[in-house]
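S., here's the first fold you wanted:
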Amino acid sequence: MADCDLSTSYLGLDLRNPIVVGANPLTATLDGVVRCAEAGAGAVVLKSLFEEEIRIEADAVDAALSQEGDWHSEVYDYLQAGLGMRYAPRQYLELIAAARQAVDIPVIASINCTSPEIWPEFAAEVAAAGASALELNIALFPENAQENSGLLEQRIVDIVAAATKAVQIPVAAKIAYSFAALPNLVLRLRQAGAKGCVLFNRLYRPTIHPESLKVVMGDCFSAPSESALAIRWIAVLSGCVDIDFAAATGFHGGTHAVRAILAGANAVQTVSALHREGIGQIGVILDEIRAWMGRKGYASLADFRGLVNQARTPDAPLFTRLQYMKRLAGA
């Protein structure tokens, strides 16, 4: 069906199709952003700027200013208010502005953050530079036995709340899957002001080299089988939490993207497939979606989005308890 309507809405943004290039080295340069847009992407997420980078640069500026002994006293008032943050990484802001001028698709900024402090002022600058939305790439780990799950989840909620207070553009939270009560956390993120949730953040997977006895990185690319986790949880959540979902990790082809949309996803992020197959894989994914829609007789994504989520299908328990029971029974 050549005239299939692949347009979608994500974070209140109009996308020509649901394929979003996630944050990665390809989106760290203007050339890379342009190439992704020309290949057919519906939106791009710029490579994440780490909170530590913002902290380092802000601290450096503050230190340089504080070394001057003859500053007017008002300067120190500004310093205490975080003036140094106004000199946070310029290149990232310049990339946002240039990308918005160069492409006609949404450009989403990304900040990899671990706390609700320091960076919200920079987030406001990101919005002022022209970012269409802000994705908070949140990868928090319990680092000791005293940090319980409630404290960890509250940090995530506080991060989102700080961002939504700092900017007027929509905010999405990209989180990992390892939470005891994921539906409640997503609900709290929505209550904190998030417009979208990206499921899931693929955490790096270090391992130990048995010969060198050193910690080494595992495979940095996802496998298609990893998409099942996002599909399952989007199917569970899309009918019960009023928030936009983007599926991420393991989405290499059109079939997996279709599954995510059937589960209720508004958008599908891809990264590893582009590194493995090239940026042209965006077009391949879109063609596979169109071909499937043609076979099934669907004219638009709206015709089948969420069609097989837990809230709308009589087989909904397959996403939760029943599937587990059947597997144990050998069915």
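And the second, which I think is the more interesting of the pair:
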Amino acid sequence: MIASWNVNSIKVRVDAVLDWLASSDCDILLMQETKSLDENFPTERFAEAGYAVEIHGQKTYNGVAIASKQPMVLRQKGLGDAGDEQARYLEIEVGDFIIASIYLPNGNPVMDEGNISAKFTYKLAWMERLIRHADALNQLGRPVILGGDFNIIPDALDCHDLARWHGDALHHPHSLKLWRGLTYLGYADSFRALNPSRMAFSFWDYQGGAWQKDDGIRIDHILINAEAADRITASDIDKTPRGLERASDHTPVFARFEGARFGAKSQISA
């Protein structure tokens, strides 16, 4: 099983993450918003649990990491822009699979004093770089998995009340155009491919009783190219960790694949 989880500070959530790994029998976990420098990441705790870790960290903000029970080879940190200091992309290979942990920029606010904001401009430019890189990966003829917090609400089924999100960077026409550009390359949203009409969420804000009201959004995705899609057997969301004390505002999303030792089952809450 491959899972993705925006942990919202690995320092705060390390026990919850390791408990979930033990209960889920997850092979590979993609983490985002670790908020930790590489040297401060709790690598030894993961090693004790049987996981090697690759890290692309940043102090206080952002940060991505990958924990794997299986041998992995680091391919790339970042998207190749030497001027971008934000730690948002980490890529490995396991067997013939290429796997990336992605923390796509939020992009809000969209406007700043009547002009397109620097944050939204950065989000769009980052997505354009991701599209170019994803296109190159797709030309390799290998199964590719792009998982993470994409900060994109694709459709009405992916939020409690779509009207509230019109014009927001997570559901802005410019963001959605680039999201479609990514999927038009041949990358499928694994959850939606296997659950075409199900409303489900992966994020609930800490404010306004969102968790208690199930007022959520689905912004954490596992995208797969055709070679990976040929092997997928399941894709779902485990809501259980969001109900824990001091929980991340995100919860794990996961997918299972055959022929890659990624098929371990886990118990989930609907």
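Why I say that: The first strand starts at residue 2 and ends at 6. The CA atoms of residues 17 and 191 lie 22 Å apart.

Talk tomorrow,
H.
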